[in-house]
Amino acid sequence: MDIRQLRSFAAVARLRHFTHAAEELHLAQPALSQQIRQLERELGVRLLDRSSRRVALTEAGKALYIHAQGLLADLDRAEYAMAAFAGLRRGRVSIGTLQTVAEGTLPPLIARFHQRYPGLEIHLIEEMTDQLTAMVLGGLLDIAFIHTAEHEGQPGVEFPPVQHPDLICTPLYRERLMVTLAPAHRLAAMPSVPFAALRGEPLIVFKAGASLRLLVAAACAYHGFAPQISCEVSGATSARALAAEGLGAAILPRSAAEGQGPHVAARPIHAPAMTRTVMLVRHRGRDLSPATEVFLETVRDVYPTDGGLG
Fold this sequence. Notes:
Blueprint: H1 3-15, H2 18-25, H3 29-43, E1 48-49, E2 56-57, H4 59-86, E3 91-97, H5 99-102, H6 106-116, E4 120-126, H7 129-137, E5 143-151, E6 167-181, E7 193-194, E8 202-206, H8 211-222, E9 228-233, H9 236-244, E10 249-253, H10 254-258, E11 265-270, E12 274-283, H11 290-302
Parallel strand pairs: 3-4, 3-5, 7-11, 8-9, 8-10
Antiparallel strand pairs: 1-2, 5-12, 6-10, 6-11, 6-12
């Protein structure tokens, strides 16, 4: 018994007429009759009484029609659900992100995505790079926006290094890192600040394990001094607010240092210059859902790249 036979039987049982059922199913009447006879042979019972002018159901036919209605309704619902995914009327994308991306470039990207696909849901998780990559590898996230940071004193050395055979990492954009200060701070008078000038300055740093915390420690070691930490924070918003109050200098991405927020002096760092690269990461061996695929299309539109997302 297959679905075509069941649909044909249900149509005849409902309409009680072979010709009308054949027209509804867009079948030739001989083909419809053949499907019903084949179904009866496979089940070993007679389903229809053809002796009268109109088709009548046998007792076995009545019982099968009850079951067929439920089965075909379930099948229709399943086909609609799959069509909804194929037509992108429903779906969900689980995205991991850094706070500095979530508060900067990500909201306009998500807004653009929702304009195109209003029925799709975004599930957003904020974490540090190491946790985000682990969640992608573990299947808890579809994709993640992470970053690595570096300074020119150690070219090619990334903090943290993101190297795993099961990850595809696609660079999206780079931005300078800035030293963020209270407007009245003595270093605010400089057009750019040499990193060595931060020797002895109280520093506002991210929590242990954060990319920018690792970068600051490496740059301090490069210049031969230990960081003097005044405050440890979880996010750029807190770091900027504390810097604005004169509690120390914070090393932040340009977008976080110069965006909306408390008034600060943001100055580029040199000797060594510092940058971060924001990347999109996904699992190499895992199939992407249709919703994730179209989200990546939106990412490609905003950040054209020559590969890695496909």
